């Protein structure tokens, strides 16, 4: 590196900051690391956190802890579930629905990234992954509506089925705008 030969480092630059370890009693819980935890406990802890967030999506409450403890597992499950249900078609159909899965998946995640970047550029204080988490969980009413509509379609297609699906979609839209 020819340009780096001219760089000199001064030896008398003082080091700033506190580098000592505080001495005192601490509880055994503070020594616990998730690296030492069994895989089953890790999965159960994550599933409980996702379940807790699902409950908060169904019954919204003010909680800053939910925003602080972001995860992308719930949004991933919701997005994949929605994309799989929209894939549709029967097993003997020539249309396998592959492009629909990719389109739904990309539109949801790319849209969330664009909205998150817009928020950050406008000076938002929320972190990138917190925003992705919140936007991902916002897909839950849409996913529930799709699940109910699929179940109604199993009973048969017709005017009554259409009206029921229309009511379900309207109810989920109303729920998501509360």
UniProtKB/TrEMBL annotation:
Pfam family, one: Yip1
One Gene Ontology CC term in the entry: trans-Golgi network
Subcellular localization(s) per the UniProt record: Golgi apparatus membrane; Membrane
Annotated ranges, domain Yip1: 57-176
One GO BP annotation of this record: endoplasmic reticulum to Golgi vesicle-mediated transport
Domain of life: Eukaryota
Record flagged with keyword Cytoplasm: no
TM region(s), chain numbering: 72-89, 101-119, 151-175
Membrane association type: Multi-pass membrane protein
Keywords tagged on the record: Membrane, Transmembrane, Transmembrane helix
InterPro entries noted in UniProt: Yip1/4-like, Yip1_dom
Family, per entry: Belongs to the YIP1 family.
PANTHER family membership: GOLGI MEMBRANE PROTEIN YIP1 (PTHR21236), PROTEIN YIPF6 (PTHR21236:SF1)
Protein's name according to its UniProt entry: Protein YIPF
Species assigned in the record: Prunella fulvescens (Brown accentor)
